[in-house]
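question for whoever is on the cluster today: can someone run the full assembly for these? two chains, 791 residues total. i dont have access anymore since they changed the login thing
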Amino acid sequence: MQLDILKTYKLYIGGSFPRTESGRFYKLENNKKEVIANICLSSRKDFRNAVVAARKAFESWSGRAAFNRGQILYRIAEMLEGRKMQFVEELIMQGASKANAEKEVRQAIDRCVYYSGWCDKYQQLFGSVNPVASSHFNFSVPEPTGVVSVIADENFSLLGLVSVIMPIIAGGNTCIILASETKPLCSITFAEVLATSDLTAGVVNILTGKSKELHTHFASHMDVNAVVYCRENGEEAKAIAELSSLNVKRSFFWQKIWTKAENENPYLIMDLQEIKTTWHPIENIGVSGAKY
Amino acid sequence: MATSKNIKAVQKKSAPFVSSVKSAFQNYAPAPESSDHIQLKPQYNLFINGKFVKPLSKIYYDTINPATGKKIASVAKGNEKDIDAAVKAASKAFESWSKTDPKERAKYIYRIARMIQERAREFAVVETMNGGKSIRESRDIDVPLAANHFFYYAGWADKLEYAFPNRTPKPIGVAGQIIPWNFPLLMAAWKIAPALATGNTVVLKPAESTPLTALKLAEIIQESGLPDGVVNIVTGFGDCGAALVNHPKVNKIAFTGSTPVGKLIQKSIAGTSKKATLELGGKAANIIFDDAPIDQAVEGIVNGIFFNQGHVCCAGSRLFIQENVAEKVIKKLKDRMKTLIVGDPMDKNTDIGAINSQAQLNKINHYIKLGQKEGAEIFQPECSIPSHGFFCKPTLFIGTSQSHRIVQEEIFGPVLTIQTFRTIEEVIEKANNIPYGLSAGVWTDKGSKIFNLTTKLKVGVVWANTYNKFDPTSPFGGYKESGFGREGGVHGLLPYVNF
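^ ran it for u. tokens below:
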């Protein structure tokens, strides 16, 4: 009999798969109380490293053509499709029924395709040319907010991750995301999908560990522009909202049932966009003459 | 001590430049706007539930004319209990106002717009008397824009479903709105108009130093027949604003003011379901490239920093000039500054009016001293300023650097810091290297350069070959620590609706 090769689950920071710098781990058990993996217990330092990677990737990712971002998101769907069985197995290991596991993976793939399509369309729906009364050409466009920290849903190991990463990166942001504590397996396998999808290194950084330890750092880091919290813990949510005020961070509370179709929409993309307005004089328009 | 000697030496060296030529522009005959027809009451009450009521504390405070330092009227000092009464009135009014036929809602707002236009002159004079801004600006900018904001948003009231693809917008409830002293009437319009159009009701707190035009607006609102309690205006100080922010029946906060207060508001509504829009401070880069139309750029620099005495959150207070044209631009800028008339805000010749308050003047003077201490070269034109009231000469600091506090901190006065740059990458880096992100100016003849810059600058508004332009259809608001949410345009509706 050939011995199984057990997978080491590590973190995903800046396109690499490092172990946590803290050297800490926690044991992940299945519902029969058998240990199925040792999971990295990320530290504040891991998070800070991930922010550096995300900031570094921001210019390149936000500067790409929207069409190109759409192609890369579609590529993620392709890679996910190819590894479908691996995700189903992991979901089952974490306690899901086969039917639910298959459904979750199918939905996750569809969600990538859905947001791939939005990459070059939301700008036209949510931007505007503004008919100002003076002799100026004036237009407004959505632009990515910047670096986003995310504490992902606890219940949906894969879908909860994909449903928040996609609208964030479709809009040109980069992110650091803390995976489900009790169901972390899919997150690192999803990182392997990202790593083979031509996604710029550092656009998505995935940590495993405890929200209890990390949520205050996710909200207080001064080089993070927005924070998204997807869990139900009211105390953590309040602390995040409070600490966000340190640098006027945008904070969003996406406590959603991710299997519902209504929870995929461009308004999630728009939560992490800033509207930028540009004015320029028109030499002569109508009766008002040039205005510099 | 060597250090203190050095500081003294620097101060001596950088003593204000004194122009030897007395400009002919200083000798214009006075052209004061008459205030004879303006009717101001000796005492103003709170506007709650459609009536003017005495403050529960029975306390009134004096509001003054910053150009003379003299009292204009006494104004009710609202407190927590007055706020409570106002919020309750707004909350009750919400029940019917939110269900009012949107076409009818629109007509009330149109009516308010028209009544402001009818009384435009009165509003302009009172705005100038109470706030210190030049009559030209209040007449040509503040008041018409305020009326236009009501007119623009009135039209949205019955068209909201077109603004949000695939969504049905619903009003939020009671909007608590806190506004600053730099554009008292205009900010009231920016706040109230979209709130009413979307079916919300309002409790507005004007800034303590400039309550009069908001109270005049309350008169119009009363005359317009707007149902009682839909708009309530409570004058008072910081405690009044805090009570509004923390009131449990307030569903939405809209705040324009300083970044520190904005952060405090963000923190105090944490853990509640209150939505917020924050329009906070700024320290805008105004960038002049060597291929810019220099004469127009100089006008843009002047307008960027000296408009409204520099009491503008989006003021172009950090000037970046490309090195090879710096000397030329600075010379032209100094020449232009010598023609600026500082003085009586009611005089139609005046370019720079009064500083809004003694406290603000102290703050500006503190920064002017600090700039000299930090070693920057100061320039102020020789011009006379009135001996009473609060006035400040237009001021340049040359040879500043990113680490200077006068470059990093919002002064909110007529003080411009100048840096030079060589490459586009350098100026982008410097322009963005600040916690603020409200606005920026770019001056160049090259279109591709403008679009490169407008994409790279992390700010909410970019003025290319122009500066300090505003319009009700144009969204305004910041990135980073300049706040979040937009006011104006279709984007200005979003903060006032739920889906």
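summary bc i know u wont read the tokens: Chain A touches chain B at residues 63, 125, 128, 130-134, 136, 138, 140, 143, 145-146, 225, 234, 237-242, 244-248, 250, 265-267, 274-281, 291-292 (CB under 8 Å). The two ends of chain A are 81 Å apart (CA to CA).
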